[in-house]
Amino acid sequence: MKRVITFGTFDLFHIGHLRILERARAQGDYLIVGISTDALNFSKKQKNPIYTEKDRMRIIESLKVVDEVFYEESLELKGEYIKKYNADVLVMGNDWEGRFDEFKSLCEVIYLERTPSISTTEIIEIIKE
Ligand code: CTP
């Protein structure tokens, strides 16, 4: 059984999120998703996501393409998570192209194309206008 792992915030769940999770799942047989905590987001962007980590997790774990979820507490722990969850493949969007190549010693690393013209940041901007 091929185990796939991916990571993200998945705030204001949108079609780009669904498409990457579907394609990540198609890389193997079991999909594990690390959902970044509110604290991790705050430390990166000095603001909290719109949806709480609990709600973001509930949405992601309800998807039929997702088999398991956990909280990503620190960006520094990716390698540990890959080992802990016995991942064979790490999938990331190509906004991260090349940035996770260091994990090629632990598992296969695949960057999938982002869905054009949509992002959580853009949705927030449009609503604000
Ligand atoms: N993603 C995607 N296509 C998009 C938006 C996101 O494939 N249009 C992917 C990202 O590459 C990542 C995952 O979805 O692998 C989670 O991304 P996240 O950063 O949570 O979503 P964004 O919409 O990019 O949010 P933000 O604008 O805050 O960066």
From TrEMBL:
GO MF annotation list: nucleotidyltransferase activity
InterPro entries (UniProt xref): Archaeal_FAD_synthase, Cyt_trans-like, Rossmann-like_a/b/a_fold
Coiled-coil segments: none
Residues in Cytidyltransferase-like domain copies: 5-125
Transmembrane feature ranges: none
Keywords assigned by UniProt, alphabetized: Nucleotidyltransferase, Transferase
Domain of life from the UniProt record: Bacteria
Keyword RNA-binding in record: no
Any Pfam family hit: CTP_transf_like
Name by which UniProt lists this protein: Glycerol-3-phosphate cytidylyltransferase
